[in-house]
Amino acid sequence: MGEEIRYKQVIFSNYVKTSVKESDLSLRTSKIQLKIPCGCDGVVLVKNLYLSIDPFILALMKNQELDLPSFTLDSKLCMPGMTAYVGFFKFCSPKKGETVYVSAASGAVGQLVGQFAKIAGCYVVGSAGNKEKSAFALMKVDLLKNKFRFDEAFNYKEEQDYNAALKRYFPDGIDIYFDNVGGKMLEAVLNSMRLNGRVALCGMISQYNSLEQPEGVHNLINALVKRVRMEGFFTSDHYHLYPKFLEMVVPLIKEEKITYVEDIAEGIESAPGALFGLYSGRNVGKLLVVVARE
Amino acid sequence: MGEEIRYKQVIFSNYVKTSVKESDLSLRTSKIQLKIPCGCDGVVLVKNLYLSIDPFILALMKNQELDLPSFTLDSKLCMPGMTAYVGFFKFCSPKKGETVYVSAASGAVGQLVGQFAKIAGCYVVGSAGNKEKSAFALMKVDLLKNKFRFDEAFNYKEEQDYNAALKRYFPDGIDIYFDNVGGKMLEAVLNSMRLNGRVALCGMISQYNSLEQPEGVHNLINALVKRVRMEGFFTSDHYHLYPKFLEMVVPLIKEEKITYVEDIAEGIESAPGALFGLYSGRNVGKLLVVVARE
Q1: Which of residues 230-259 of A touch B (CB under 8 A)?
Q2: Three-class DSSP category at A221
Q3: Which of A119, A203, A263, B272 has the fewest CB neighbours in a 10 Å radius?
Q4: What is the pLDDT of residues B51-101, one digit of tens each?
Q5: How, if at all, do strands B99-102 and B3-12 pair?
């Protein structure tokens, strides 16, 4: 007979319609016996120490007809790093001297894409921000330039006109756009793309939350006229590249040529708040919840 | 001293705002001396026998900031055939057994894409139509099925709901979309795309005319979730493939394995009308104007 323990759960109570609300998630305390059922040889009990909080979770919480895969075990293993690696090197086909724009650049994936772009010899600009103009947004922009060594960075919330902002940072246009946000920013980028540009569709965080109807992109004719390749990808389709990823990244980490910022919330009770914060840009870097320290 | 002749010109009088209007073009009769200027050895006088009327002309008639190339001499040499070849084989990467949808399928490019798709062992459905439900639209649909051997064809003007129409013809989804129209049809197709689908952005005829503001595509998240590759292309970038194109197409024409329909208007006076007709779907196949018979 195993030990009976009390534990806390975050319950997914309602399908999300537009924005995730507190009432869509609830906290519950339950009891469980830490016992492996009889006849289950070779089975182990697993204790989760961390939860990964990712923008994509909201898409899974909506009752909509999208062919979304379930989470797999793999998607807790270095996902942001592999996403940055696969998305940038496989889907953006970077060449030395090209211009790269990364949105949501202070996030888990974006911060690495920018560093990979610098290693590939590109000029890279990142945007970040949060719902309010704040010292916090300033800190994110500062982090992009001074910690992650982006060539330029800006707070997109301070820009009235995305087209003008992009013209300022990319007077000769953008070769590569690593898109983490979709919507109006994607539309503006298409106006600034250069001939034979590439857009990796990695995330559309601006479209997951807050909108009854997703924003329309009205200028896809630019993709035609400028011969732009736009491609969506899921990291889980490319795990055969994992050894190559490690081969590249491990020495770079050891030599401190790439760096990383994590944003850690304490206790499973903080998971709903961490998720709400993610959609209003309150995190910096990879967002985690510590469930237990050991 | 060369012979002085009277000749007719179609003059491009005004930049087009939304739809092309009769007042945007005018007919003029002028005089010219058929004489090569002195000192110009090796120069020849050229007499045009045919004009090519293409959907893309309207984009060149609008005073908008798009990086559009000027027409080149090459773009009167087999352009629709090369466009179908390059767009389908290079940008759609077809595999035997895949499902292919072609919009504006009775046009100069579409009719060939459908036939190439059948040769590649694909299931192919085309849509055509014109502004009014008419016997003419019926004739186009009939042509697609019975002359060009598409598996299915439909008049998009008779469909209230493009999503429902595509579900009917592609119950298991679309692998390849050869897009000649853009706008709302592209949006509907994205809902029906299969995993790892490909969209060749060849034309956006629905967006060139009649619209103050281009239609928005609101569901690009499908391109992300379904890992779809969307890519714009210009045939003129791929003329190095011309020998390969001929190698494939010439035997197919000789063996009557591919066929072709042209829509020929008589006399340069008919050029403006032919252009107006193109945007209301009044042509079938490659639209030409005969300027002179010899």
Answers
A1: 230-234, 237
A2: helix
A3: A119
A4: 877 777 777 777 655 555 443 333 383 678 999 999 999 999 999 999 999
A5: unpaired
